[in-house]
Design brief:
S16 Ribosomal Protein, Chain: A; five-stranded mixed beta sheet; 32% helix
C-alpha cells in the first residue's frame, strides 16, 4: 500500500478549504483517509497553513510521500519560519 500525504478539498463552492490528510494513494481526493494532520485555508489570512509536525515526521518516517503541492507549501512554511527568526 503506497501512502501519500496530500490535500483533501472541503468547503463551499468558490471558498476552498483543505485538510492535510494521510491516505492510500488509490483513494479519491475527497475519499477515505488514514489520518487528518492539518489544514490549509488559502482564502484566510495570508494562506493559513497548520500541520502537526510530529505526525508529519512520523508518517514521513514510515515512507509516506507528500504530494507536489503539499511539498511546495511545506517549503514555503519553512522559508517563512527561517525569515522570521532572522529578523
Amino acid at each position: 500500500m503506497a501512502v501519500h500525504i496530500r490535500l483533501s478539498r472541503t468547503g463551499a463552492k468558490k471558498r476552498p478549504f483543505y485538510r492535510v490528510v494521510v491516505t492510500d494513494q488509490r483513494s479519491p481526493r475527497g475519499g477515505r483517509f488514514l489520518e487528518n494532520i492539518g489544514t490549509f485555508d488559502p482564502g484566510g489570512e495570508s494562506g493559513s497553513f497548520v500541520v502537526d509536525d510530529e505526525r508529519l515526521t512520523y508518517w514521513r518516517g514510515r515512507g509516506a510521500l507528500p504530494s507536489p503541492t503539499l511539498d511546495r507549501l511545506l517549503k514555503r512554511r519553512a522559508r517563512v519560519a527561517a525569515d522570521s527568526t532572522k529578523a
